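Q: How would the structure tokens look for this protein?
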Amino acid sequence: MSIRKKAQAGTIQSSDLMVFVEPAEELVIEIESTVRRQFEHLIRDKIEEVLRAQGVTAGRVRVSDRGALDYAIQARLETALQRAAGESTPARAEQR
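A: Here is the predicted structure in token form.
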């Protein structure tokens, strides 16, 4: 998957995060978090895992985290990547 355009997903509510992605020549990950000191390495690991699984090798990923759990990080990043690639996001009922 390639990042073709700017996209975002998420909210800035407590226990959630905003993910911003945009095209870039190399892979850049920026993390801003209320729990950065304790959990930045785990947040980065989850982001890198999702990027690898989606085959993303270039782009700028910026995360503004407010204490989101790993499943929320994964879901928000996957959604932002789908939007950035120009893919439609299936409705929940269609995923079952």
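The chain has a mean pLDDT of 92.

Strands lie at 7-10, 17-22, 27-33, 59-65.

Upvote if useful.
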